[in-house]
Amino acid sequence: MGLLMNLRTFATTAAALAILGTSMSAASAEPGDDGTLIGTEQYAAGYWRLGPGERPTDTTRDWSYIGAALPIACSEIIGDTGRHSAYASEVVPSGQDHWLTAATETSTVPATLYSTTGLQAVLAAGYQGRCGIYSTYNGMDSAVMDSFPTPDQIMASGQEARALLGLQPAQSYTANAARSDIASAYAATQLAAWYFGEGHDVMAEFFTVASDGSVGYSDLMLSYIAPGEGIPSRWGDSPDGGHPLSVEFAKHLIEVGLQAQAAEAKMPTISLGTATRTSDGSADYPATITAPTDGTYAVTLAMADGTAVPSGVALVDSAGNPVTVASNGHAVHVRVGAGVKAAALKGLTVVASASGTTAGAPTLWDAKAEITSQGDLNGVYDRTVVSAGVSPTPTTLVAKAPLTLLADTTPTPITPVSPASTPSTTPVQTPADPARTGTSDQLAVTGSDTLLLGGGALILAIVGTGLVIARRRSA
Q: pTM, whole model, 2 decimals?
């Protein structure tokens, strides 16, 4: 980090591009304060021209320049850490762009950068070969000369570009043909890098994305690549009369970037609801699984100390069925059977996990752009350029939510009923009244049943709910 690097900017040339021309000025190279070579080589850039009535509608850039175009300059960063194919992050309208010189690796991510994951996927799948320029200019410092690709390297890079563009290896290959293939592959990667970089708002006016993630062309793009136009400044001119290979490859790379974004693991979150206890003594602990994007997430139960989950505990859905996968926003329930003590559940945790990839990230460079020939625009400007960095790798993100357990229930004791509060069923004996005279006792029985037992010795009278026994007096 922080190492000052040498940024070489080269021209892109191809039949599919509108070229202003390629020229080279005398290059100067001097050691920097840290001993790193700082080069100021300058080459003309390739431009994709924008028609007067067919320019992006964004208001953050000035497209009024008479030669408005998307500037594409094949760039390499060469220094102590090796060589890096580099791409502009921002779309700078022609008239405001100029030569990139030195670059320093930085960890600062531009606020308007659209997606580091998508950008890294594009850079990894896009063109990473050499730029299609080599020179034997005698006035250059030998250290500068050593940074240029040799003719053999250009041929090899051209074949690499053809493979990316879906073309068969060339059997009879010239340097000019190799440069053309390199330019197409580099330009395609630059368009896709802009889409995921700071130039997303501009590229979104040229490319459309359907709900299934497939990428297409907007009407604005179609106005440039419609076959058969026969206008050299149109992007639709290509040797086979169809869409330029660079635009087709750019569309493919944007899809690659979008797929990388979709495959990135998104950390789920677990929201615990209010626990309740049912009438049979069991407990219910609801939990809702949420995540930044729709999808399914593996769910399970675990104990904090790694021991097995006690029997009588289950993870179920709202219908009571066992569950191992939950969708975004859906609830699961931890059911604890009656009799399972809270002490046995200490550390019981709901676990949700998302499998996917880690977030890939490109290498970012804080580059300097020198403008010395455009009047009021003269000066040194910061530009962010990007090169392939860390690619996504498989990963699993895990969220955990320990349960707050309900207290154990205490059985309600049964209170014994006092005998005084219970109606007596013991027969009550009523003695004869000595004061009464007569040959027999009179039992007033109203609405009762009377039974004469043992020759009339006893008379049982059931009156209402009481039982009255009277002895018959002897004569």
A: 0.71
